Amino acid sequence: MAKKVLVGMSGGVDSAVAAVLLLRQGYDVTGVTLKLWDGEAESGCCSLTDTEDARSVAQRLDIPFYVLNFKDMFKETVVEPFIRSYLAGETPNPCLACNDSIKFSGMLAKARALGMDFIATGHYARLMTDPTSGRILLMKGIDPRKDQSYVLCNLTQEQLAATLFPLGGMEKPDVRKLAEEMGFVVSQKPDSQDICFVGDGHYADFIRGYTGMDSRPGAFVDSSGKVLGTHKGLIHYTIGQRKHLGASFGKRMAVLAKSAEDNTITVGEEPETRSSEVWVRQVNWMKWEVAPASFHAGVRTRYHGEEAQAMVETFENGLAHVRFDVPHRALTPGQAAVFYEGDVVLGGGMIAGGITANPAGKHSCE
């Protein structure tokens, strides 16, 4: 009997081709679109148009198709934590939370309730089993321009064992070509660029509209604490930002840090944006059940960022201390730090709330 798989279909070309590949591999495929959000800002994987595009693909493939209402779960586990993180002075990546709580948790629970063996998505990533440990390893997709392993760093062994990534061994042009050959309406559909519940990328406007709270102005300060000007609110800025600061400093400056405690934004010249070390919290180790005390790895600190080589020291309670071989730019609290050994994801966690923050209480990083 064919294995049953529930494919998350966002209405885009990637998930459409994922469904095709699984059918060709002999799986019993059911498509599902997750309804996550309502509102004028809706775009990406949540809009009515995208739902109808996904339904069109499912009809062409002659597979069952359902729309599941995950709006309450999405609001509770993705949107509201995103807002709290921004208000706390961080710059979160909600895609990680969505993958963790919705796509590979909520959807997997629904798949099991329906008697499915697997879930699948159109993510560009690969899986393999470590012949020594037996653990399932997450690996980069072969297309370096589309690799999405970074946003999958929170997945557990249980989730990985029940997941399929059909596109991991493909490059994007080949995916579009196959979709075109199938006659899919989504074959040339642009990739979604914005956060689905924000849409236009204006995070501050979204937060103000959602919470009803105005962004509170505060002081721009330099590293010594000297006041240099007035900012329009923490949520309008991110670490490393150099443009549209809304103040004249007499020379080019960039955001070094944000403090929700005293509502200040520290700015400095470009060399000051680089740091030699950082703490990472809530690390999910993927290659090991218990990570080595220390190891050398490539570290990616932004979704599309370059890997930087670093020494990683691990501690209890999901903490890691990262010391870069070469100072690294714009280390941003709330973003993920993901550790790589070649194509293999060793693990990943959240950059702690300060470049020299010391949540372990065991080192001085000054």
Describe the overall structure.
There is one protein chain. It is built from 7 helices and 17 strands. With 366 residues, it is α/β, with parallel strands linked by helices. The chain folds into 3 domains: 178 residues, HUPs (Rossmann fold, 3-Layer(aba) Sandwich), CATH 3.40.50.620; 54 residues, Roll (SH3 type barrels); 78 residues, Elongation Factor Tu (Ef-tu), domain 3. It is globular and about 70 Å long.
Question: What is the fold's blueprint, element by element?
Answer:
Layout: E1 4-8, H1 13-24, E2 28-35, H2 48-61, E3 65-69, H3 71-87, H4 94-113, E4 118-120, E5 125-129, E6 136-140, H5 157-161, E7 163-164, H6 172-181, H7 203-211, E8 218-221, E9 227-231, E10 254-259, E11 264-268, E12 274-285, E13 294-300, E14 308-315, E15 319-329, E16 336-341, E17 344-351
Parallel strand pairs: 1-2, 1-4, 2-3, 4-7, 8-11
Antiparallel strand pairs: 5-6, 8-9, 10-11, 12-15, 12-17, 13-14, 13-16, 14-15, 16-17
Helix pairs in contact: 1-6, 3-4
TL;DR?
By secondary structure, the chain is α/β, with parallel strands linked by helices.
Query: What structural class should be given to the helix and strand makeup?
Result: alpha/beta
Proportion of beta-strand residues: 25-35%
Sequence of strands across the biggest β-sheet? 12-15-14-13-16-17
The level 1 CATH classification of the largest domain is Alpha Beta
CATH architecture of the largest domain: 3-Layer(aba) Sandwich
Q: How does the major sheet shape up? A: 6 strands, antiparallel, barrel
In CATH, the topology of the largest domain is named Rossmann fold
- Overall helicity: 10-25%
Radius of gyration: 22 Å
Low-confidence stretches: 360-366
Mean pLDDT: 92
Shape: globular
What is the overall number of helices?
Answer: 7
Terminal Cα separation, in Å?
61 Å
Structurally, the number of domains stands at 3
Topology pattern, helix = H, strand = E: EHEHEHHEEEHEHHEEEEEEEEEE
